[in-house]
Structure formats: structure tokens, C-alpha cells
Amino acid sequence: MSLDWPATLPAHFIQGSVSSSRNDTAIRTQMEVGPMKIRRTDTVDYAKFSGECRMTMAQLEIFWAFYNDDHEQGAEPFTWTDPFTGDSHLFVITAMPQVTHLGGTVVAVSFQVEEVPS
């Protein structure tokens, strides 16, 4: 079962805050003598993103309820929009989100998501 990202929360990271990487599918072992040994461990390719969403304090409460109760702190995948392509994919939040108070009732929530390979 997958969840939907709450409609009352920002649908994507704010522009300019997104960074992306791909999973590493190889193990590199330094040998005592000679070149490094590299072997592939996986063939599944998926994306990792980190970024920031701006939210009100009311939205932050909704975000924490979603993260802790529905998403189970990363255990349940949810449908969200890929920040680069705009396509819908399944994602999980992979690290504890960080909240920065920007003033008044506005906060910046930074978090990392990882695409769930299909």
C-alpha cells in the first residue's frame, strides 16, 4: 500500500534548494598491492533528492503527523512528484527532517527522499 503526499502540504521542494544523486551500485576495495577491486552489487538504479519546503506552522503540524503516523518515519512509501521530471513516483524520507524557523508562522523543512525502485 502506498500513501499520497498530503494535498495541504507543498507539492515540491522550493526552487534552488534541490540536490540529487543516484544510488551507488558498486563496492570498491583497496588492495594492499595493485589496483582497486571494483565489483557491482546491484543493478537497480534509483534517485535520491534533498531539498527544502516552506510551510506555515499549521502545515508543519500536518507534516509531522504524516511523517510519524502515516509514513511511519520512513517505513511506508508515498506518492510524490519527482523534482526534476515532474513524474509521480514512490518515495520514502530517509533521514529525520530538519526545521528552521524563518519568522512569524513560516518554517523551512529540509529533508531527504529516496525513490522506491519499481
Q: What's the alpha carbon Rg, rounded to whole Å?
A: 17 Å
Overall tally of domains:
1
* CATH architecture label name: Beta Barrel
Estimate the global geometry from the Cα principal axes: elongated
CATH level 3 topology: Elongation Factor Tu (Ef-tu), domain 3
* Strand percent estimate: 35-45%
String of helices and strands: EEEEEHEEEE
Total beta strand runs: 9
Could you give the distance between the termini? 13 Å
Helix content: 10-25%
Task: Give structural notes.
The chain is mainly β and 118 residues long. The protein has a single domain (3-115), classed as Elongation Factor Tu (Ef-tu), domain 3. The protein has one helix and nine strands, in the order βββββαββββ. A hairpin with a 7-residue loop joins β3 (26-29) and β4. It is elongated. The mean pLDDT is 89.
